[in-house]
Structure formats: C-alpha cells, structure tokens
Design a protein that fits this description.
94 residues, mainly beta, eight-stranded antiparallel beta sheet
Length: 94
C-alpha cells in the first residue's frame, strides 16, 4: 500500500464549524479489499476508530475520504482488511 496524495506527517487539518475536519487520501496497492483506519491518542484507540472501514482498494488503487470529529493530536494508521499491507502511521492535528 502506497499513499500518493493526502495527509503529510504532522499536518493540522482545518476544522469545519460543527462538522469536524475531513481528509482524503489516494494511493496504490497490489491487494483488493476494505481499507481500515485506526485513530489513537496517547496509545489509546478512540472509541469507534479501531480498524474502522474508511475506503476500499479496487483495481490497484484506493480512495479514502473521512471526517474526524474529535480534536487533538492523533496517530492515524491504515491497513487493508486482510492485514497484508500497511500504509503507515501519521501524527495529525485536528
């Protein structure tokens, strides 16, 4: 799994009034299937964010578009449901 466009490490997302922040990532992968995200802060996974389905890899590509409602600094990790490929982990601010 390789991110081509989207979040940069340490990036702070702009919050939309009352709606949180949103992020979109695109990339390539050899696998097919659901893309899962885990969002954590201080080594604790946020409720509802343990391997949450945020997109799907099809035909060698994936697109993820998601809203983040909590505020603070978080670690975001992405992987395919089969657990074969991990895209990486980013520290982001919301």
């Amino acid at each position: 799994m390789k991110i081509q466009c989207g979040l940069a490490k340490g990036q702070v997302l702009q919050r939309l009034v009352g709606r949180g922040a949103s992020a979109h990532l695109t990339g390539t992968t050899k696998e097919t299937g659901p893309v899962l995200a885990t969002l954590s802060a201080e080594n604790q996974t946020l409720p509802g964010w343990n391997q949450r389905s945020v997109g799907r890899a099809v035909a060698g590509q994936f697109l993820i578009g998601n809203r983040f409602r909590p505020t603070g600094t978080f670690a975001l990790s992405l992987k395919l449901e089969a657990g074969i490929s991990i895209a990486g982990c980013w520290q982001i601010g919301v």
